[in-house]
């Protein structure tokens, strides 16, 4: 094994580890994460097979897995499409009728290669020597692979086109969708370039290594952008997540921006909208009659924080009052009263804002109050 092969095999292991992290994290939509985890597992298999192809470190395994990589290749496009659709529309993408359409390429691969997959290895060798092995295929696997690579590019283009209308009024989310789609396009084009070089009989191991590394980079970037999707959707600016990204003000003037600042403050603070535990950036925008990306922009620019931190500051301030003025209430009860949905998120937000836990805050405030009374009594 050379350094390239060791590196790519290490990436295969890392991709599997990433899949475990993605599925175990509480952040984000569960169904979209499951879709992407399947994508990552299939991609990890592809990387492993590539190393097996280059090194032949296990000849039996290599022969057994020949052409199996066509199954993952047939699923990458549909999985990406369903993944983005779930993130963007939040709808059930597992509708049986529509799902079957996206599985047609995989069915074609299984129909075409099924008999070959079932052949004993000894028979494969015999038929290969006789030059009759390809009688077990309806479509030449090499031609099928090329067709699947083209289909992958089509999925990359159509996924962006079909979902971009969802973010017509949201520059940040539209940019997120565009960047994510471009990365998948890079992944798809990498497959296509590989096949073109292979058909032209000019493909070298070096080309193969470079193309595989480029695929790894594209998949890694898609995974990252999927991970930060929730933060962007809830108002965190791409400028903070990607420092080189410039914030598009979308025609929002300074005067209008300051007016929006007052409206946001009044709605959240004076009307106590923060007490709603299910409050989202979209809910706040709807209540204000503002575009969601404008609400996000104003909060980021005028208050210097993301939507969640902005709302949590109001909740924590309200909690501080209740913690000292209601001895009969438990901490978890107060957490729910001020808009938190669980004790863990309350403790995390409280400590982030006050640098102490709610219990420590009560203890310090009680001690300070006692000391103040002592001084007053002895004056």
What does this structure look like?
- By secondary structure, this protein is mainly alpha-helical.
- It has 18 helices and no strands.
- α1 packs parallel to α9 (205-227) and α2 packs antiparallel against α9 (205-227).
- The protein is elongated, with a radius of gyration of 28 Å.
- It starts with a helix and ends with a helix.
List keywords for this structure.
379 residues; mainly alpha; 75% helix
Count all strands and give the number: 0
Low-confidence stretches: 372-379
| Helix content class | over 70%
Structural class: mainly alpha
Intertermini distance: 83 Å
Calculate the mean pLDDT score and round it.
Answer: 84
Radius of gyration: 28 Å
Gist?
By secondary structure, this protein is mostly helical. It contains 18 helices and no strands. Helix 7 runs antiparallel to helix 8 and helix 8 packs antiparallel against helix 9.
Strands, helices and their partners?
Layout: H1 3-24, H2 30-55, H3 59-64, H4 70-89, H5 96-118, H6 121-130, H7 141-163, H8 171-199, H9 205-227, H10 229-233, H11 238-241, H12 254-270, H13 281-288, H14 292-303, H15 307-325, H16 331-337, H17 343-354, H18 358-377
Helix pairs in contact: 1-2, 1-9, 2-4, 2-9, 4-5, 4-7, 7-8, 8-9, 12-14, 13-14, 15-16, 15-17
């Amino acid at each position: 094994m050379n350094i390239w092969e060791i590196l790519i095999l290490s990436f295969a292991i890392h991709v599997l580890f990433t899949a475990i992290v993605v599925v175990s994290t509480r952040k984000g939509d569960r169904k979209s994460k499951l879709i992407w985890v399947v994508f990552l597992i299939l991609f990890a298999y592809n990387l492993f097979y590539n190393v097996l192809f280059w090194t032949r470190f296990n000849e039996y395994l290599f022969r057994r897995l020949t052409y199996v990589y066509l199954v993952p290749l047939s699923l990458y496009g549909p999985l990406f499409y369903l993944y983005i659709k779930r993130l963007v529309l939040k709808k059930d993408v597992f509708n049986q009728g529509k799902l079957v359409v996206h599985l047609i390429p995989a069915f074609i691969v299984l129909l075409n290669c099924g008999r070959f997959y079932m052949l004993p290895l000894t028979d494969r060798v015999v038929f290969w020597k006789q030059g009759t092995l390809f009688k077990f295929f309806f479509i030449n696997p090499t031609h099928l692979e090329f067709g699947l690579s083209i289909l992958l590019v089509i999925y990359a283009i159509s996924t962006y086109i079909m979902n971009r209308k969802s973010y017509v009024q949201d520059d940040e989310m539209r940019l997120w969708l565009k960047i994510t789609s471009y990365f998948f396009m890079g992944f798809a084009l990498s497959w296509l370039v590989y096949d073109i070089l292979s058909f032209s009989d000019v493909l070298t191991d070096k080309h193969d290594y470079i193309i595989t590394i480029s695929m790894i980079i594209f998949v890694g970037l898609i995974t990252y952008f999927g991970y930060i999707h929730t933060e962007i959707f809830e108002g965190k600016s791409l400028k903070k997540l990607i420092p080189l990204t410039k914030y598009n003000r979308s025609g929002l003037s300074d005067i209008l921006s300051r007016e929006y600042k007052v409206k946001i403050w009044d709605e959240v603070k004076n009307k106590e909208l923060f007490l709603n535990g299910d409050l989202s950036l979209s809910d706040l925008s709807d209540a204000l009659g503002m575009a969601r990306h404008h609400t996000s922009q104003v909060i980021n620019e005028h208050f210097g924080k993301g939507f969640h931190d902005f709302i949590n500051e109001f909740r924590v301030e309200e909690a501080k009052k209740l913690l000292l003025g209601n001895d009969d209430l438990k901490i978890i009860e107060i957490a729910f009263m001020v808009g938190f949905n669980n004790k863990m998120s309350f403790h995390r937000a409280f400590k982030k804002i006050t640098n102490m836990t709610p219990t420590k805050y009560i203890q310090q405030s009680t001690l300070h109050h006692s000391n103040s009374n002592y001084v007053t009594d002895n004056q």
